[in-house]
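Researcher: Next sequence.
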Amino acid sequence: MPEVSNTTIKHLKLGDLLEMTGQSPQHSGLHVFSKTPKKKEHGGHHIDYPFRVDAFFIIIVTDSSLHIKLNLTDYHLQKNDVLVVGPNTVRQFIDAGEGCCLTGIMFTPDFLMQAGISKKYYGAFDFFAASGSPFMRMEEAEADELLELISILHKKNHEGSAIGGEYQEEVVKHHFLAFMFELASLYRKSHAQEKIRLTRKEELMKRFLKLLPEHARQQRGLQFYADHLYVTPKYLSQTVKELSGKTAGAFIDELVMVEAKVLLGDLSLSVAQVADQLFFSDQFFFSKFFKNHAGITPTGYRKTF
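Model: Next structure:
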């Protein structure tokens, strides 16, 4: 497999990621794992560059610590911490503490839909919302409950890929759903101070924030998001400002800047190529946009590395 730059955002499929990390595929669209991350210099398959993958990650640190970045935001996880990562999130594994061990599952959006979650339960999975917190700290007993469910799911998923059998698909999905609802219950308990029922304005903002990672690269205009949410740009802007203190445009620009900084970290790309990947009309307008938000030109930003 060809070498990749340490800072290029790679778009991977779940199968590609498993191959690159030395893991064998299990069920189609679902993979359960328990492993100790190892750096390349120690003979491991550590991926140290930013990437997206067409799958959700739910990671539990079972020993030591893990440092990971999501959309350039740092998360320092300790034992019994859980992290939920969506498919559109730029993720980068920075470092793992001595003896770090991770357990979790990876699954594609298609598998999630095929698992048969009724629409009336969609609201239970707040941790999938872009506006929700992807991080949760558990008590030892709570972590043990989740790990037990993962262990059973791993066994059934591995059996399903090895021997098949009547109703095997249903058995795997049953245990997957058991895990998901247990996680949802623990998440609600952990975030009990947050409102469970959203007002119409809160729901609008939640949907807006969920659209952003999917479209911010190509769509920086407020009209696009307003059209998709069936409201006027003025109403969307007022609602987001009222609930967050920031304008909708500021949220869009922040995400574009996340993408820009990561792409600029790849020194094999010219500034013009970065501008092109972010769908700016030319390098001049990209440089002007970047300086307005970062206070420094793209070239100047690269000199800070």
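Model: The mean pLDDT is 83. The first strand starts at residue 10 and ends at 12.
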